[in-house]
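Researcher: Please translate sequence to structure tokens.
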Amino acid sequence: MYYVYIIMERTTVVLPPRLKDLAQARAHSAGISFGEFVRRAIERAIADGPPRRRSRRDPLLDDDAVFDGKVPKDLSIRHDDYLYGDL
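Model: Translation complete:
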């Protein structure tokens, strides 16, 4: 016979009241404790992989197919023309 011990570590998390209330309600409706709900949510977030980093570049202005690397001076006025062609 084998015994497996899982050592848990207590952690304090500060939540806005509305978020905590919604999470507690969801945990209750799932028939699990609030702590188990939080553990599962963290597991899902980790399983999804690292968050995507936002590019610091502007994807519209960096689109060489649209601007060929040059930003037109009348972009703010004719942005639809540049994006979609003459409408």
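Researcher: Any highlights?
Model: The CA atoms of residues 24 and 83 lie 46 Å apart.
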